Amino acid sequence: MASTMHDVAKLAGVSIKTVSNVINDYQYLKPETRQKVLDAIERLGYRPNLSARGLRSGRTGVISLIIPTITNAYFAELADEVMRAADAKGLSVIIEQSNGDRDRELSLLTGPRTSMIDGILYSVLGLREEEAHLLANIDTPIVLLGDRIFNGPTDHVAMQNSASTRAATAYLLSLGRKRVVAFGAHSGEVIGSAGLRLDGYREALAEARVAFDPSLVIEVYEWFRSDGARAMRALLDSGVAFDGIVAFNDLIGLGAMRVMQEAGIRIPEDVAVVGFDDIDETRYSLPSLTTINPGKDEIARVAVQFLQERIAQGAHAIAPREYLAAFSLVERESTAVAS
Amino acid sequence: MASTMHDVAKLAGVSIKTVSNVINDYQYLKPETRQKVLDAIERLGYRPNLSARGLRSGRTGVISLIIPTITNAYFAELADEVMRAADAKGLSVIIEQSNGDRDRELSLLTGPRTSMIDGILYSVLGLREEEAHLLANIDTPIVLLGDRIFNGPTDHVAMQNSASTRAATAYLLSLGRKRVVAFGAHSGEVIGSAGLRLDGYREALAEARVAFDPSLVIEVYEWFRSDGARAMRALLDSGVAFDGIVAFNDLIGLGAMRVMQEAGIRIPEDVAVVGFDDIDETRYSLPSLTTINPGKDEIARVAVQFLQERIAQGAHAIAPREYLAAFSLVERESTAVAS
DNA sequence: AAGGCACATTACAACGTTGGAGAGATTTCG
DNA sequence: CGAAATCTCTCCAACGTTGTAATGTGCCTT
Asked: Distance (Å) from CA A12 to C1' C23?
């Protein structure tokens, strides 16, 4: 069926190893020989068998990306950036959905499929920080993403959760908002996106000498639209007054906006809203949503780069690195100053 | 490093082939032997090397999914369904983004990476129907998705574009709407999502004996939110009157809604809107968007099933099949009858 | 008691590639 | 001008698995 190196070698009149050398850009090759081989490859439509290469060399050119779910726009956009960055380096990406389930995450990190994978970009959700040592025993190169595990046994690329949420909060305060809601907290969480973002919120308050009011911290456990909508309904029912919202992701912010608008609350006049993630949709919601751009593209680029270095040098050959991407506040209508 | 079958065989005191037999559920095995091997596997943490298996058996357990872009919610949700369906059958999925570029699609179908893939789910966008014969020469099993190529040389799983758009249009007419816009046409396109949906629109008009008005057919070439917004701005500027919209996908429908609302048009009172795709977001937009659920889950399930059969029996061993998934109209606020 | 059959396991080769080592050929340079 | 260095290519083995075929067992039949 498909032609092999043997066929190419025979047609070009060289040894099979020379064909291999041409393909792998070995430096000592007569241009003439190289051309003969190239012609034969072209003529036969030869394509290397990656399984064989993988078996022999131990490299498959495939990395996997473990994320909670691709249907969340943030992760879809992250996956997009990762695939672009990987493609630029000739790597393929297998996406694995974990649903944030700890056991599933672990089995994806160690399961049979890892044998056809050079490395893993692991967006941590289920695994706890105190379990991070489990990663030290895995001999597949791993780069961690997300906000659950810092200073683990391998590279970690993340966004600046505290600093950016602090900037978002400070921005609302600077607009004269007095009662800003932290929308999306997970009670008791210290680390993790929710915990870190809440830190940033509190820092901004402290800096502005605004008293912290626990009734303005709203729990939203899952971060989908419907969860934001539900939490906002409860908040409105509770009668707590507020004039600004820092939503810990765009989706719950959008869900909350929707409920507020149904209740006749004007945005931004009555309540100004800032989201987090800068997903595409925030540009087209009504009103468009001011949000934090956390630097997905940079995260993807750096993570793939780190992973590639780790693949080249060995899973544990490089001391763990921490990298925080640059963020920016994208101002849109949901916080527009009245004109 | 990682243990191999040899290690397992040695520990269990059997031949390497017996280990292989255990793993592949060979029928003639003493329960006792099987258990010994299983114990050894457990103890060594043995995991089969998929590259070696792929090389020897010709199967890797990986399929690829070619889609235009994962950042489009429809494709993200489709990919999600495909990964679930594949996972249930022990298959991994490599996602490849084509951006709808014909040449890139072709190179993904034939490139080197196909050697590590058992089959391809190909969501056609760039390739033209008259080029479908090109697929006949590819020896990787392929199942086609989408609305560009019908009756091609291999299986095709699609949604009922005409019938469902016809139902959506008929529904708006049944609500008493007189001037329904077909929003998202591609002029000159006969086949393809836009062409087929326009057919359905015209059929519904004919059936209801409503005259076709070309000024109500609006071109929207790309189908992202911003394109819908732009097209709606142009439509409003043109002064053409309308009281209903059948948007050819949800995103342009949402973009259009947003522009209408800015212009003070009430939905559904002034204009009723139906979308297409039933992406998650339509549940949470303001107003929530009535839409066509095209049966993504069924499409994914059937497509994976077809592909698996084709992998088992040979790329061209099965006569091409056409499968159309069931659709449904999901009624939400954007067409709610005033109460 | 010998042949037949189902069961249980094994030996060996092969999948297509690359790493390592080395054999010729050619060039460089003291 | 000869030895060393550089270049070009080839041979062989090995990666870890599975397909094929063969070799044993034991039990049932006649």
From this structure: 21
The CATH number of A62-159+296-327 is 3.40.50.2300
Residue A156: how many CA atoms within 13 Å on its side-chain side? 19
First to last CA, chain B: 70
CATH class for the domain made up of B161-293? alpha beta
The predicted model gives A18-23 an average pLDDT of: 94
Per-residue tokens: B321: 């099949």
> What stretches of A167-243 adopt beta strand conformation (E)?
180-185, 217-219
Q: Which of A300, A322, A317, A324 is closest to A151 using CA atoms?
A: A322
**pLDDT single digits (tens) B158-188:** 999 999 999 999 999 999 999 999 999 998 8
Domains of chain B, by residue range, sit at 5-48, 62-159+296-326, 161-293
Task: Assign A298 to helix, strand or coil.
Answer: helix
Distance, in Å, from the CA atom of A222 to the CA atom of A166, rounded to the nearest integer, reads 22
Nearest nucleotide (C1') to alpha carbon of A6: C16
User: What's the start-to-end Cα distance of chain A, in Å?
Assistant: 71
For B253-284, how does the pLDDT look when each residue is reduced to its tens digit (9 = 90+)? 999 999 999 899 999 999 999 999 999 889 98
Q: Which residues of A90-113 are buried (b: 16+ CB within 10 A; e: fewer)?
A: ebbbbbbbbebeeebbbebbbebb
Residue B27 forms contact with A (CB below 8 Å): no
- A219: Cβ–Cβ under 8 A, 6 or more apart, which residues? A184, A185, A186, A187, A231
Q: How far apart are CA B98 and CA B101, in angstroms?
A: 6
* Chain centroid offset of residue A172 CA: 26
pTM of the model: 0.91
Query: What residue type is assigned to position A143 of the chain?
Result: V
Architecture of domain B62-159+296-326: 3-Layer(aba) Sandwich (3.40)
Q: Tell me whether the CATH fold assigned to B62-159+296-326 matches the one assigned to B161-293.
A: yes
User: How far off is chain B from A55, nearest CA to CA, in Å?
Assistant: 5
Selected from 3.30.540.10, 1.10.260.40, 3.30.365.10, 1.10.760.10, the CATH number assigned to the domain covering B5-48 reads 1.10.260.40
Calculate the angstrom distance between C1' of C29 and CA of A32. Answer: 28
Answer whether any strand C atom is within 7 A of the Cβ of A16: yes
Cβ–Cβ pairs < 8 A, chains A and B: 144
Q: Is the CB of B59 under 7 A from strand C?
A: no
